[in-house]
Amino acid sequence: MSAPALASMLETELWLSFVSLLRSYAAAANLNLEEHARIEHAGNSISIVASAARLELLFDPETRTVSWQMRRDAAHPITGSFAFLPAGAVNINGTIKDLDHAAIDFVAAVTEQRGKGTER
After folding, report:
1. Cα(62)–Cα(77) distance, rounded to whole angstroms?
2. For residues 58 and 47, what is the distance between their CA atoms, to the nearest angstrom?
3. Mapping DSSP to helix (H, G, I), strand (E, B) and coil, where does residue 10 land?
4. What are the Cα distances from residue 22, in Å, to 6, 55, 108?
5. CA 74, CA 53: separation in Å to the nearest integer?
6. Alpha helices in 1-120 (DSSP H)
7. Inter-residue long-range contacts of 67-70, CB under 8 Å, 24+ positions, other chains counted
8. What is the Cα–Cα distance from 92 to 103, expressed in whole angstroms?
9. Using 50, 70 and 90 to split pLDDT, how confident is the model at 1?
10. Is 83 exposed, middle or buried (0-12, 13-18, 19+ CB in 10 A)?
11. In angstroms, rounded to a whole number, what is the distance separating the alpha carbons of residues 50 and 57?
């Protein structure tokens, strides 16, 4: 098998692992949310929705990058992208994070200040 094909397979596996982590951390966050976050997953995209916040991530297997868009209420979206690294980490604008911490940060960005007993 060629090196590019192996790299593509690796990044696809990392994407699937990342999706699993997002689901797990969203479920954990739901323990403290009045209105539970929900996951919408289809193929190479996943969305996390909590109240009026929505985070959409789209994996492009050809470029091996994930582009994301975060929107709260009617505010302008915040966008970005990241690439998977072979060691099971991601490079987000020059910052290297392991998959777990990246997933925790993305879920927290959607669910922050939406928990029980927090001011709104």
Report:
1. 25
2. 9
3. helix
4. 24, 11, 10
5. 9
6. 3-30, 99-111
7. 68/106, 70/109, 70/110
8. 12
9. low
10. middle
11. 15
